[in-house]
Write a structure and sequence with these properties.
heterodimer, A: mainly alpha, B: about 80 residues, mainly alpha, 3 helices, flat
């Protein structure tokens, strides 16, 4: 037993050493061609002063579409498992935190602390998520990050408030997700019909709108990621949160 | 500073591997995410830092806690 454990540790150390040895010991310098090209041309060609967003929404937009598809497939699989799970556990729904207090058997997840803190913080985090989403071409951030912050704000609102609004209704969120995904696919595939592609941005000079299509894509990706993650977590916390 | 952060991350990951209470392990994982976000900020990658902070600390912790709530909390003795 002890010998086997020692052998495992030894093998792990050897594998890690073999994996990192070429990186540490290599004399070949890192390739800098792409970095220099982007440093000179990225701002002029795409209009986004954040080079990261000019790469993943300009030069490599098709990869971003594939990444969004991966997230979509993951959410679909999780939702199918979760909905079948809750079909068999109908009696446990009464203790879920997404119900109003009169229908709940006991306050399973919701305490006074959660209600006070999360209900005050929720709208502020919602605003911050929108800020990260909208300013993704200027400052660090972007659609995906803003969408995840947006989703956690929606989760805060679901956990903490009894007020039923459209933003915590999972039916509405699912429809918003579907519409934004369809429009993302349409906008991404229109590049086939235009030779200049996404670099045909509106020339407003140094205005904050100079990124053109990147702002639109940031907003759409943010809404899609935020609503899909929010729908998944609402389903985890106890079925549909509908009116 | 980077060495300090990396050694803290190493200690927390070893703790989350050997912890018997799985909830403690999840809290240690989210602390690892915060420290990695700080490290990415020092290494001038703020985009990655925002992603790490939002996904690692927010969403994945919620999913882990949900999974622990629906299974057993304590790690079984062998």
């Amino acid at each position: 037993m002890r010998k086997a454990k020692l052998l495992k540790v030894f093998l792990t150390i050897i594998i890690i050493t073999l994996a990192t040895f070429p990186i540490i010991m290599s004399n070949v310098s890192w390739p800098t061609f792409t970095r220099d090209y982007l440093f000179v041309n990225a701002l002029n060609e795409t209009g986004a002063s954040n080079t990261v967003s000019s790469i993943y929404l300009g030069y490599r937009l098709m990869d971003t579409l594939g990444e969004t598809l991966v997230l979509f497939v993951a959410i679909t699989g999780t939702m199918s498992i979760l909905l079948n799970l809750h079909k068999h556990e109908l009696e446990s729904v009464k203790t879920q935190s997404t119900l109003v207090p009169e229908k709940r058997v006991k306050n399973a997840l919701r305490t006074n602390l959660v209600e006070v803190v999360a209900s005050k913080l929720g709208p502020i985090i919602l605003l911050f998520g929108l800020y990260v989403m909208l300013f993704g071409h200027i400052s660090p951030g972007g659609g995906f990050q803003g969408g995840v912050i947006f989703a956690s704000a929606i989760v805060f609102l679901v956990l903490a408030t009894d007020v039923k609004t459209k933003i915590t209704n999972s039916h509405v969120l699912e429809r918003i997700e579907a519409i934004s995904f369809i429009s993302l696919i349409l906008i991404t595939t229109y590049v086939i019909f235009f030779p200049e592609g996404f670099f045909s941005t509106i020339d407003i000079g140094s205005s904050f709108l100079s990124a053109g299509i990147i702002i639109l894509l940031n907003i759409i990706i943010g809404i899609k990621v935020g609503t899909s993650i929010a729908v998944m977590i609402i389903a985890m916390m106890g079925g549909k949160h509908d009116n | 500073m980077n060495i300090l952060l990396l050694s803290l991350i190493l200690c927390l990951s070893i703790f989350s591997l050997i912890a018997k209470d799985l909830l403690h392990a999840v809290i240690a994982l989210s602390a690892i995410s915060i420290l990695s976000a700080l490290l990415f900020t020092f290494l001038k990658a703020p985009d990655v830092a925002i992603t790490e902070a939002a996904v690692g600390t927010g969403v994945s912790t919620i999913i882990y806690v949900w999974a622990i709530r629906h299974t057993k909390r304590k790690d079984g003795d062998k």
